[in-house]
Amino acid sequence: MTATAGRDGHPGTSGSPAGSDPDRGAEDNLRRRIAAELIRTRERSALLTDVVDDDDLMRQHSTIMSPLVWDLAHVGNQEELWLVRDVGRREPVRRDIDELYDAFKQPRKDRPALPLLRPGEARAYLGTVRNKVLDLLDQVRFDERRLLANGFAFGMIVQHEQQHDETMLATHQLRQGPPVLAAPPPPEPAVAVPGEVLVPGGPFVLGTSTEPWALDNERPAHEVDLPPFVIDAAPVTNERYLAFVADGGYDEPRWWSEAGWQHRCAAGLRAPMHWEPDGSGWACRRFGRYAPLRPDEPVVHVCFYEAEAFAAWAGRRLPTEAEWEKAARWDPASGRSRRYPWGDEDPTPDRANLGQRHLAPAPVGAYPAGASALGVHQLIGDVWEWTSSTFHGYPGFVAFPYREYSEVFFGDGYRVLRGGSFGTDRSACRGTFRNWDLPIRRQIFSGFRCARDVRPGELG
Ligand code: AVJ
Ligand code: FE
Q1: Which among 4, 110, 216, 330 counts the fewest CB atoms within 10 Å?
Q2: If you measure from the C-alpha of residue 154 to the centroid of ligand 1, how many angstroms do you get, rounded to a whole number?
Q3: Residues 50, 42 contacting (CB under 8 angstroms)
Q4: Coil, strand or helix: which one is 193?
């Protein structure tokens, strides 16, 4: 959403949060922006579920994914729990279905066997909940509770629905059968992108305490001092990844971590997910269509272990999430951390490949307007980028508003991904946004870029 720019690390320039402004006009403006975001988001959920028939919606396309109709009703149930019941203090619409749509109570593999709402019932349920929400949005006072400050509860629900929309898009990619989704191709490269960028050592501000709709795991802002490092100016492309495959990288245990090699063998990995042998080379299947691999496109559908092995083969490593964020947000001219690589303004179509506007990552060089102050390209959009970091709370972390969003996933089991993919909505990514998944997962739109330490003498 268009929110007041957070200016972390510069107390003197903190924007005044629109929602806490006692002025009625500012509150109405926030209401209008929230309603527009809710409606825009629901259009996406509808598109993703209207393009297939009822049987297809009820079916499980992969045991690691939910039936699409589960995601749909779950989105409505979260909206009911947080906005109708908690924020609006209204009577439950369907208390009887809470358990069915509780992700912690229902393992994914069991979801198709549950007595789920049929597609027509699910759509009607979402409509009933949404009408109540739009009604209560008109009456809500944003200064009443912390949960409502700057419209946070609504922003959290918008981001939740958009995250499930991205998950539904990944389910579409796993679906068998003819294509049902279409979009224009991403833009062509407009500039040549250098190989690597040097990021000077020194402190910078990581995370945020001011971004109005930032989730709990992005908070609080805190200073981190990093030694200098070098990071790829663009995500690793199919061309570079193909060289690793062709060099026998998948058959050489020395490039893989112990856990990575074990997984490579158990899962029989030979190439990224959705790559298919094509004569002597490879093609890829994307939303039901076959296409040759485009060399200058970021590689997508690799797991953390594959990213880690490529980096070792290339004589590099994955960046930590702090390194990724410094490359993305740190502005050497001001010393300040910006909301996005290009500055504090919200994403626009010329800055980043987001929101399912295109159904593929864009070739390297297609988004010069999205480059960071240091000249690092395509950090936001295209592909989620694996980092070497495990998922933990920042110093001073406080779960808000519920432990189950982030805190229960803290630990060494998950790896952090940054930046968002072509399937991520602009409301659900920013310079501070943290995604996480198991290191074996690759049905998500995941790629990576490499980093390395500075070589002796390189700093001049
Ligand atoms: C942040 C993408 C890992 O999909 O599991 C959705 C988001 N949390 N419903 C997920 C989420 C609750 C979450 N990720
Ligand atoms: Fe959810």
Answers
A1: 110
A2: 16
A3: no
A4: coil
Phi-psi region of 254 (alpha: psi -120 to 50; beta: other; left: phi over 0): alpha
pLDDT digits (tens, 9 = 90+) for 265-289: 999 999 999 999 998 889 999 999 9
Tell me the pairing of strands 384-391 and 446-447.
parallel
Q: State yes or no: 132 annotated in a binding site.
A: no
Q: Is 175 annotated as a binding residue?
A: no
- Comparing 147-151, 281-285, 295-299, the range with the smallest average pLDDT is 281-285
Tokens of 328: 């993305």
Cα of 45 to ligand 1 centre, how many Å? 16
Rounded Cα gap, residues 372 and 422, in angstroms: 18
- Cβ(163) – ligand 1 distance below 6 Å: yes
CA distance readout (Å), 341 to 130, 244, 372, 444:
34, 29, 4, 23
Measured in angstroms, how far is the CA atom of residue 338 from the centroid of ligand 1? 25
Q: Is 164 annotated as a binding residue?
A: yes
Q: What percent of the chain has pLDDT over 90?
A: 93
The span from the CA of 71 to the CA of 66, in Å, is: 7
Residue 24: per-residue pLDDT:
85
On the question of pLDDT at 175 being above 50, the answer is yes
Calculate the CA dihedral of residues 4, 129, 67, 218 and round it to 10 degrees: 20
Please tell me the predicted confidence (pLDDT) of residue 5: 40
Residues in CB range of 68: below 8 A, 6 or more apart: 48, 49, 52, 56, 57, 168, 171
Q: Is the CB of 435 under 6 A from ligand 1?
A: yes
In this prediction, residue 23 has a pLDDT band, given cuts at 50, 70 and 90, of confident
Distances (CA, A) of 345 to 4, 7, 129, 351, 370: 9, 12, 32, 10, 11
Residues in the chain: 460
pLDDT band at residue 13, thresholds of 50, 70 and 90?
very low
Residue nearest to atom 14 of ligand 1 (CA): 435
pLDDT at 22: 60
Q: How far is the CA of 247 from the centre of ligand 2 (A)?
A: 40
Q: Assess whether pLDDT exceeds 50 at residue 374.
A: yes
Which pair of structure tokens corresponds to residue 267? 């899962």
Q: What is the pLDDT of residues 213-271, one digit of tens each?
A: 999 999 999 999 999 999 999 999 999 999 999 999 999 999 999 999 999 999 999 99
Q: Kindly list the structural domains of the chain, giving each domain's residue range(s) and its CATH number in brackets, ordered by start.
A: 22-174 (1.20.120), 196-238+298-453 (3.90.1580.10)
3-state secondary structure of 199: strand
d(CA 321, CA 218): 12
CA dist 119 and 99 (Å) reads 18
